[in-house]
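Structure ticket #2291
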Amino acid sequence: MMAEGADLFDRLVAESRDDWAAYVDHSFVRQLGNGTLPARAFRHYLVQDYLFLIHFARAYALAVYKGQSLADMQAAFTGLKAILDVEMDLHVRLCGGWGLGPADLERATEAKATMAYTRYVLETGMRGDLLDLHVALAPCVVGYAEIARRLAADPRAAAEDNSYRAWIAEYSGEAYQQVAAGARATLDRLAARSMTQQRFPQLVTIFRQACRLEADFWQMGLTGAF
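Resolution: structure written out below.
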């Protein structure tokens, strides 16, 4: 059981433990942390994640539109700006090492896992309200912060021979951790305004589906290495 006063994100995780664990402790994640992930797997993932972020930027733009207050709009804009100015820049820098520029990334063919996840989030946002949309976004924006913080605690993550230390450092860094903290706070603010006891199971369903799609996205990266 969750301790009294737990935030909405922790409550969602507590009701989705198996799906959450399959996502945050996926083999892709473990190999990323210890530096054994095949380079082809990371490259395939990173190219697809660039396409993924384009659609997630649209989802945050939708959240700006759906905002009922300036606070709603500012919170969504923070997420949008993090994608456009930080995350996509990281992908361009890393992919540049393979001779891939932004135009190459945008021309890449979307994998089925990319389409499934991004369209699920956008469709959830279109048919639901702002809380539905932010719950669908949460496994990604908060999950990456949690994953990277855990990986960064392992000395292998920062080892010179770990080719993925830049990725881990980016998502475990203070700037991204603040984005994730803001996303958690936004969930609580929206829940205080529009969540009921009867609605909570519906939010769990959204959250669990997004976690499953995240795990599929990691698996897509591994499969792309072969």
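Closing remark: The first helix runs from residue 8 to 14.
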